């Protein structure tokens, strides 16, 4: 992987660091974030916050280099470690870290005190208005709602005109409607102010929906990075499969290979069920692991025919659970499959427990993943 | 009533508290935020006056101030008189004696300030001093008041250190507790009682104020972090 210093004019964030936190956990990461949203996706304890803290300067990495545009924030070889206060970064903490004893106005003006009072006030008001919280200036953080606190924290970071914005799961406690409104406002701001936004999340949906780029981090290492579609739809690693939401992961043995078709037939462990999956670098008899998204499996009330899908086999409904706008159906078909449907589909097919159904899975919905190295 | 002893004691307590604010705050800050592995040595030294008999502490302070020690000689060459049996000497000894009473509540309060608030302050461009004045101090004001009041009350009532370092010179080093001792020695129980009552009432009031100001920090005992 190459790490350029970035063009002189583009303010991309370039990170390559190694940092040992304990005997059993080391962070080793290299990636670049151009202007726009870069999602840092991974499970808790995967090193996401530590990575942000290294970039911010709260934690000094053991080795590596961090640059932002032409400015070098950290370089272990050149012995550069820019003080936190000079890095010109915005950081929205998971707990927001609004100063509880100061009003919203005082919080937002905290980073621009060196400006003359009238300019300071004008900038604060512009920022508060673009985040729709201008009416809250006299309140303290404890006296406003959760969504308003998020907006105040964003405004406090952005009013300083940071060269990059670091967000540590800032919207995790909010309902979806509030969240998407705040994100729209942030996106609008980012269109006018093109800086890299590094957005930490453990939610694949969020990463999918927001990011122009996704970096998957687990066990202190970057497992994949790139466009969300690329990263999320072609997992090559079991942890990625779990991180990005493959609800069904099966161990299987390759039974036969159809080289010319580009497929192979795999037998699930402890089950008569066979799946046709895309060809991998394997031979008959090899062990493989197959990951399938719950939303990629189709349920049919009777034996389907005339389908292009290559896998169809009968099963029995174990349970149906409604989760908000989707229904989670568990089906026994040699192995236990998790399937996500819309409630309308459930009603239309009259799916209920103990019902006999058919499962339909496209060959290319079956993803081969490598067992985790952890 | 021995008013000169009362005023002397109040003056001593105020001087000691003011000094402790200046000396104790940086120590408390350092103790709260350092990651130095040997920090516990410093913590032990600061806490020593809690466990040592005042006479032991007073004895070593007296020796350190005496004309045979470099410190004592340096002070004498500087001011023309020695430290023992003077108000200054008494104040220095009292500062050392009350150090843990100021430092520990302050350090406890400082280390309870959310690290993210401190980080947020620095990433917004604030210097360490500004972070301390605008974020850490306002959020730990209870601990600072506790430290101030505790060391004040503690200095009011000290006896052993005063006797060792200050002796019993009226108007110079004769504090309330020494005066009480004198009254008892002279079998003047009524006089002793008047001053003892005053001291007790004063201590009770200051402690009540402190407890009511910040119960949270004081949940168990101010020395526990």
What's the quick description here?
By secondary structure, chain A is of the alpha+beta class. Chain A contains nine helices and 21 strands.
Describe the protein's architecture and organization.
The complex is a heterodimer of chains A (374) and B (225). With 374 residues, chain A is an alpha+beta fold. Helices cover 23% and strands 35% of the residues of chain A. Chain A has a 6-stranded mixed beta sheet with strand order 7-8-9-3-10-11, sandwiched between helices. A 5-stranded antiparallel beta sheet of chain A has the order 2-1-4-5-6, covered by helices on one side. In chain A, a hairpin with a 2-residue loop joins strand 17 and strand 18. In chain A, helix 4 packs parallel to helix 5. In chain A, 39% of the residues are buried. The N terminus of chain A is likely disordered. Chain B is mainly α. Chain B has a single domain, classed as MetI-like fold (Orthogonal Bundle), CATH 1.10.3720.10. In chain B, 76% of the residues lie in helices and 0% in strands. In chain B, helix 6 runs antiparallel to helix 7. The longest helix of chain B has 31 residues. Chain B is globular. Chain B starts with a helix and ends in a 12-residue tail after the last helix. The C terminus of chain B is likely disordered. Chains A and B meet through strand 7 of A and helix 6 and helix 7 of B.
């Amino acid at each position: 992987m190459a790490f350029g210093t970035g063009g002189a004019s583009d303010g991309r964030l370039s990170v390559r660091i190694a940092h040992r936190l304990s005997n059993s956990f080391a962070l080793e990461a290299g990636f670049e974030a151009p202007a726009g949203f870069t999602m840092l996706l991974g499970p808790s304890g995967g090193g996401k916050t530590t990575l942000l803290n290294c970039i911010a300067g709260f934690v000094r990495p053991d080795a590596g280099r961090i640059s932002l545009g032409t400015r070098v924030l950290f370089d272990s070889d050149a012995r550069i470690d820019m003080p936190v206060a000079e890095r010109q970064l915005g950081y929205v903490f998971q707990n927001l870290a609004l100063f509880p004893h100061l009003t919203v106005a005082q919080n937002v003006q905290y980073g621009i005190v060196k400006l003359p009072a009238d300019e300071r006030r004008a900038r604060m008001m512009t920022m508060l208005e673009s985040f729709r919280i201008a009416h809250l200036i006299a309140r303290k953080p404890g006296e406003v709602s959760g969504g308003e606190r998020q907006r105040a924290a964003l405004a406090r970071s952005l009013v300083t005109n940071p060269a990059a914005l670091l967000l540590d799961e800032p919207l995790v406690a909010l309902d979806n409607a509030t969240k998407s409104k705040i994100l729209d406002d942030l996106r609008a701001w980012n269109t006018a102010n093109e800086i890299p936004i590094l957005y930490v999340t453990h939610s694949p949906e969020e990463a999918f929906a927001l990011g122009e780029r996704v970096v998957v981090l687990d066990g202190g290492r970057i497992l994949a990075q790139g466009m969300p579609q690329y990263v999320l739809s072609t997992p090559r690693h079991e942890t990625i499969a779990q991180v990005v939401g493959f609800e069904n992961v099966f161990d299987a043995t390759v039974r036969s290979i159809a080289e010319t078709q580009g497929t192979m037939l795999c037998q699930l462990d402890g089950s008569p069920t066979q799946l046709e999956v895309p060809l991998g670098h394997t031979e008959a008899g090899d062990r493989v692991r197959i990951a399938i998204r719950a939303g990629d499996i189709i349920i049919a009330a009777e034996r389907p025919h005339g389908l292009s899908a290559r896998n169809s086999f009968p099963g029995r409904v174990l349970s149906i659970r409604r989760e908000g706008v989707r229904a989670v159906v568990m089906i026994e078909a040699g192995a236990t499959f998790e399937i996500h449907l819309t409630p309308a589909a459930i009603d239309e097919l009259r799916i209920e427990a103990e019902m006999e159904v058919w499962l339909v899975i496209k060959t290319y919905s079956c993803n081969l993943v490598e067992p985790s190295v952890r | 009533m021995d008013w000169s002893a009362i005023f002397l004691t109040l003056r001593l307590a105020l001087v000691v508290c003011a000094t402790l604010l200046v000396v104790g705050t940086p120590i408390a800050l350092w103790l709260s935020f350092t990651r130095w592995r040997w920090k516990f040595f410093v913590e032990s030294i600061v806490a020593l006056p809690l466990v040592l008999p005042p006479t032991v502490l007073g004895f070593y302070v007296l020796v350190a101030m005496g004309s045979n020690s470099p410190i004592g000689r340096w002070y004498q060459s500087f001011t023309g008189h020695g430290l023992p049996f003077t108000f200054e000497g008494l104040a220095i000894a009292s500062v050392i004696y009350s150090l843990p009473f100021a430092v520990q509540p302050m350090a406890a309060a400082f280390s309870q300030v959310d690290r993210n608030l401190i980080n947020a302050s620095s990433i917004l461009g604030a210097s360490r001093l500004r972070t301390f004045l605008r974020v850490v101090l306002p959020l730990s004001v209870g601990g600072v008041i506790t430290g101030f009041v505790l060391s004040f009350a503690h200095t009011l009532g000290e006896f052993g250190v005063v006797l060792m370092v200050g002796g019993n010179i009226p108007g110079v080093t004769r504090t309330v507790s020494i005066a009480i001792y004198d009254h008892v020695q002279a079998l003047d129980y009524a006089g002793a009682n008047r001053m003892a009552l005053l001291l007790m009432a004063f201590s009770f009031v200051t402690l009540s104020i402190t407890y009511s100001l910040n119960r949270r920090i004081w949940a168990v005992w101010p020395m526990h972090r």
